[in-house]
Design a protein that fits this description.
Elements lengths: L1 E6 L2 E4 L4 E9 L6 E7 L6 E7 L5 E3 L7 E6 L4 E6 L8 E8 L6 H4 L8 E2 L3 E6 L1
Parallel strand pairs: 2-11
Antiparallel strand pairs: 1-3, 3-8, 4-5, 4-9, 5-6, 7-8, 9-10, 9-11
Length: 129
Amino acid sequence: QVQLVESGGGLVQAGGSLRLSCAASGRTFTIYAMGWFRQAPGKEREFVAAIRWSGGTTYYADSVKGRFTISRDSAKNTVYLEMNSLKPEDTAVYYCAADQPNPLMYGRRYYLRDEYDYWGQGTQVTVSS
């Protein structure tokens, strides 16, 4: 089992920045990739960004490309989401997710919720206009 704990959410004005963290514990050696998703009220959970643990290949949703950066610290088993130029439409609960090894398919499935095996409890990000 892998446990994920997010932190760093909060209230920020439009144009501002936040950095989210997700600390993994438990069987972290089984993690192949980690991702961030978000869910706004009344909407489905959507992909934001992902990173392969080995090699660091990153993936982004078009809506955040150029504004958000995902990174990881392998020594701390932590993944980060640096969010800049925030907009009111970025308001959502942000969830961290971990993926068990699926190297052949991950490149085509990284944006799918059911690709990920473990989820955190979420952290609220609110961007005021």
